[in-house]
Design a protein that fits this description.
The complex is a heterodimer of chains A (about 120) and B (about 750). Chain A has about 120 residues and is an alpha/beta fold. Chain A has a single domain, classed as Immunoglobulin-like (Sandwich). Chain A has one helix and ten strands, in the order H-E-E-E-E-E-E-E-E-E-E. Chain B is an alpha+beta fold. Classes of the chains: A alpha/beta (about 120), B alpha+beta (about 750). At the A-B interface, helix 1, strand 3 and strand 7 of A face helix 3, helix 6, helix 12, helix 13 and helix 15 of B.
Chain lengths: ~120, ~750
């Protein structure tokens, strides 16, 4: 095999390993809600990606979209039956009172960006 | 935005404003002081950390605009924190975004056509020389890549910071690769030539890909707006003002200020503003927008009217009984919004796949590059590059993401238009699997307004017809049962004076007992008589005859002896027979559940065409009956009025509450039918089947598309058929893919369910 092909193959394998590690091997940052208000910034995803909220208490979650990507213009908390438009740079607050513990995923309207609500 | 009505000062409104421009903690006091000086502002709390101000004020004295002006006068900017429902600004913003997108698409397409003209083998022979100049192509392509295509980068880069990838990542990667190669060829043609590759740039590839993908996005955005049309229509039904009578004067009041107990006047052709009860006048009202029933309903004094419906013929005044968020229309809107946001169980698999999708595509694209570079024909680099770009571009995660939710949105919206309210996506999904439907007889198959048909004295010499009716009505006066109401009404029609009853007691599923003039009176079914050890043999024959006619017969016993019979019958709904037939056509077994005895129940069931009869079921046994049928391995739907049979509705796989819009019913039921037409049950099942069919075809298309076309783009067909997918064709397919999924969901709007 010629040198260039060897280099391309090695780079390819490294690229694949990097892609796997970078996108699929990440650990989510969990933030425990310190009060009954949680703010989530919507920019290239949801930050923090996972919020921990208490069971049985009403928590206000405020989304602020700073990302113009149309994909993020809607947030869907399917388990809580909430679908909200997120106008750019405008906070939108939703209230949830989870009755059961567990991890509840939410996503953008097209199901491309994901976040989590962990109820403990 | 959070509106909090303060319990003590109910005129006070608390609104959150966003404050921009604060740079230190002292700014807080400046703003607070300025606001507190405004008349009508009770309290202003500014938070430096969150950049928010919670302001309590009297909306009659001060407006939001005045607050914003006050803040700007002291050098800051206040923005009203809006909910997503405040649609005006949002609409404007969306329109602007779409206009912007259209302009960009037009520019990119025009540029793409020009570059293609100047570079495509046959076309370029007729192109002006300026278009054939690679440097000119580079300038044009750069504008498209970095101005039009900026939104792909803008979405992809922040996502990378979060270590996530999306469609924008794929498009950015693909177009950047094609663009960078073309720039390299333009600037260093000799280097490329030295590698044995003809130094031809491919500027048309990134430009046309960007144009087509944005064009797809434009169509998709337009189509998606159609999926939430039903909600917008429902919101549009709300009246803006009400003509409230204040003293003798009629005042136009904004709908938000109508209070409970207000007397409202409605004229022909006007919209009824809120829910209420008619006090004076009569009219025919078009309720089709809420109930789905096309024929206007006649309403008289004492009847209830629904806000958002249209008064057709007469003028009437009515008392507001439900306002604001309590009205039926508001509840319907809330329910539909919630249903549209809920997740269907079928979505779970999609979620799992989509979370791995984009990284897997990047891995496949890398593999494609390596394989083509190592084993492909010459020029290998070019083949590797173009096929990699094709893989990145053809992959369409959006179609998968949109497949289920768009269909759920259109399906639930379509249901609401016909008076079929679906609680959530899960209920909609389960309803298509229903194999048995149990109807609670009273109020669903029948009108729910029973009438006395026969009064039969068994000892006519001692107790005549009137005495029997008088005794029965006296004892039933205290009962809330619908049969009791029929007997009391009949006695009132006959102008009978009722006696005083002592020791009244209702025994559920049996009847009632009490004392009239010191004598023990029993009124109920055979079970009650057996329980009280009353001999029913004198009544046996007439009882059997009446019951075989489908009538509910009650035995009256006085001092331990049977003295008469009272038969009550409920009229079947016009839609009952047709509804049952239509359900059987859908291969669904129809059953009837009732407290009536077997003979009566069978007679009624026969008339409607129902074969399976569950008779003599006490109210608290209905739930157990539902479970019994479930244990046969069937998915069971239960149809009831939603109030008396809540446990049975909850036990069924799909609980359907019919002919009601009350909170209790909506809470207990998976599907609420606002009208009383039995065909709506069929409509709900058909809607569920059609929605699921749409979801399945969407998913099949979205998955099939990716599963088939990604390998094609990788070059799977090349070794045998010499077929490769050009990146431009890939972008056409990709743009078409997600738009077609949304369009397929929109087709549901045209589905026939009634």
């Amino acid at each position: 095999m010629e040198t260039d092909k060897v280099i391309v193959t090695i780079l390819g394998i490294l690229g694949i390993a990097f892609t796997y590690w970078f996108f699929l091997g990440k650990k989510e940052r969990e933030v425990v809600a310190s009060s009954d208000n949680v703010e989530i910034t919507v920019e290239g995803g949801y930050s923090p990606e996972a919020v921990v909220i208490p069971k049985g208490k009403t928590t206000k979650i405020t989304f602020i979209r700073k990302d113009p990507s149309s994909c993020l213009s809607e947030v869907v908390l399917g388990d809580f039956k909430i679908r909200k438009e997120l106008p750019l740079n405008t906070p939108v607050t939703v209230e949830i009172t989870p009755q059961n513990p567990g991890t509840f995923g939410y996503s953008c309207g097209m199901n491309m960006y994901h976040g989590k609500i962990v109820v403990r | 935005m959070t509106y909090n009505l303060q319990p003590k000062n109910y005129n006070l409104l608390t609104t959150t404003f966003l404050i921009k421009g604060m740079h230190c903690a002292s700014c807080v006091r400046v703003i607070e002081r300025a606001l507190e000086k405004v008349e009508g502002v009770r309290e202003a709390q500014v938070n430096f950390a969150t950049e928010k101000a919670n302001i309590s004020y009297d909306p009659k004295k001060v407006t939001d605009e005045q607050i914003i002006t006050t803040v700007s006068q002291v050098g800051y900017k206040a923005l009203l924190e809006k909910t997503a429902k405040d649609t005006e600004i949002e609409k404007e913003q969306k329109k602007k975004e779409l206009d912007n997108l259209r302009k960009k698409v037009a520019f990119a397409l025009a540029t793409g056509v020009l570059i293609l003209w100047g570079s495509f083998p046959f076309l370029m022979d007729f192109a002006p020389s300026v278009l054939k100049n690679f440097l000119v192509q580079l300038v044009l392509a750069s504008i498209v890549q970095f101005w039009v295509g900026l939104e792909f980068y803008k979405a992809a880069i922040p996502a990378l910071k979060h270590r996530t990838a999306n469609m924008d990542t794929l498009v950015s990667l693909g177009t950047t690769m094609a663009y960078s190669y073309s720039v390299f060829v333009t600037i260093f043609p000799e280097t490329v030539e030295a590698l044995g590759i003809k130094p031809m740039p491919y500027f048309d590839v990134p430009v046309i890909i960007i144009a087509l993908i944005l064009l797809g996005r434009y169509f998709e955005a337009k189509a998606r707006a159609g999926t939430s049309e039903a909600i917008r229509k429902l919101i549009g039904l709300q009246a803006k003002t009400a003509k409230v009578l204040r003293g003798k004067v009629e005042v136009d009041v904004p709908i938000g200020e109508v209070e409970l107990g207000d007397i409202i006047r409605v004229r022909p052709g006007e919209k009824i503003p809120v829910d209420g009860t008619i006090l004076d006048g009569e009219s025919s009202i078009d309720e089709s927008m809420v109930t789905g029933e096309s024929i206007p309903v006649d309403k008289l004094k004492g009847d209830t009217v629904i806000g958002g419906t249209i008064n057709k013929t007469g003028t009437f005044t009515y008392k507001a009984t439900k306002v604001g968020m309590e009205t039926m229309l508001s509840q319907i809107i809330r329910l539909v919004e919630e249903a549209q946001a809920s997740k269907a169980p079928i979505q779970k698999l999609v979620d799992l796949i989509s979370s791995y999708f984009v990284p897997v595509v990047i891995i496949l694209a890398t593999t494609t590059f390596v394989l083509w570079y190592d084993f492909g024909p010459q020029p290998a680099l070019l083949f590797a590059l173009l096929n990699t770009v094709a893989v990145l571009i053809i992959a369409c995660p959006c179609a998968m993401g949109l497949a289920t939710p768009t269909a759920i949105m259109v399906g639930t919206g379509k249901g609401a238009e016909q008076g079929i309210l679906i609680k959530d996506a899960e209920s909609l999904e389960t309803a298509h699997k229903v194999k048995t439907i149990i109807f609670d007889k009273t109020g669903t198959l029948t009108q729910g307004k029973p009438k006395v048909t026969d009064v039969m004295p068994l000892q006519p010499t001692t107790y005549n017809l009137q005495t029997i009716l008088q005794l029965a009505a006296s004892i039933e006066k205290g009962s809330e049962h619908s049969l009791a109401e029929a007997i009391v009404t009949k006695a009132e029609e006959e102008n009978l004076v009722l006696s005083k009853v002592e020791g009244f007691r209702a025994i559920p599923g049996h009847g009632v007992e009490g004392k009239v003039h010191g004598d023990c009176v029993l009124l109920g079914n055979t079970r009650l008589m057996e329980k009280e050890k009353v001999d029913t043999s004198p009544a046996r024959r007439p009882l059997a005859r009446l019951e075989s006619e489908g009538k509910t017969v009650m035995i009256l016993a006085l001092k331990g002896k049977v003295v008469g019979l009272i038969a009550v019958a409920d009229t079947l709904k016009d839609s009952a027979k047709e509804g049952v037939k239509a359900l059987e056509k859908l291969d669904i077994e129809v059953a009837m559940i009732t407290g009536d005895n077997k003979r009566t129940a069978t007679a009624i069931a026969k008339e409607v065409g129902i074969k399976r009869v569950l008779a003599e079921v006490l109210p608290d046994q209905k739930e157990a009956e539902v479970r019994k049928i479930q244990s046969e391995g069937k998915v069971v739907a239960m149809v009831g009025d939603g109030i008396n049979d809540a446990p049975a509705l909850a036990a069924a796989d799909v609980g359907i509450a019919m002919g009601t819009g009350t909170d209790v019913a909506i809470e207990a039921a998976d599907i609420t039918l606002i009208n009383k037409d039995l065909r709506s049950v069929v409509g709900a099942i058909k809607l569920s089947k059609k929605t699921m069919k749409t979801i399945k075809s969407n998913l099949f298309w979205a998955f099939g598309y990716n599963v088939i076309l990604i390998p094609v783009a990788m070059g799977a067909l090349y070794p045998i058929f010499r077929i490769l997918l050009s990146p431009i064709l890939a972008s056409v397919a990709m743009a078409f893919s997600s738009t077609s999924v949304v369009a397929n969901s929109l087709l549901l709007k045209k589905a026939k369910i009634s």
